[in-house]
Amino acid sequence: MSAFSNEYYLVIQTIHLLSAVTFGGVVIFEVLILESLHKRLSSKVMMEIEAGIIERARTFMPVVIVLLYATGVLMLRAHFPNLSTMPKQLRAPVAGQDCARRHCSRLLHHRDDAAFSE
Asked: Max alpha carbon distance in the chain (Å)?
């Protein structure tokens, strides 16, 4: 790892984890808590609650998402300063072409002989 990563890696990792927990917590809150309230409260009250939550989330969630991605990229750069040294398995295919080509190739060349024997 580079000198940058040794000095600041723990801080970057902590910010990354806190951002991930915050993002996950908001999603879990919306799915588990808010959905259960729909059955118990009137639609007018629910609309007011959701409007307040959405307004609040719009103020801090963009910051959380930017921090999550930025710290993720910084940690990636700490482990692979020169991205060309990254193992081939970890590299993302360009526009998904390589992955799609491999998947389609497997589908086209894979036969289930039991299905054709009927």
From this structure: 66
The answer to whether the beta carbons of residues 61 and 23 sit under 8 Å apart is: yes
* pLDDT over 80 at 3, yes or no: no
Give the range among 35-39, 45-49, 92-96, 114-118 with minimum mean pLDDT: 114-118
Token representation of residue 66: 């930017």
DSSP state of 93: P
SS3 category, 40: coil
Q: What is the pTM of this model?
A: 0.64
Task: Name the residue with tokens 């590299």.
Answer: 91
Joined tokens for residue 70? 């930025």
* Token output for 112: 């289930």
Which whole-number Å values give the CA distances from 23 to 19, 39, 44, 73, in the listed order? 6, 25, 27, 17
What's 31's DSSP letter? I
Q: Where are the alpha helices (DSSP H) in the chain?
A: 3-28, 35-37, 43-79, 97-109, 113-116
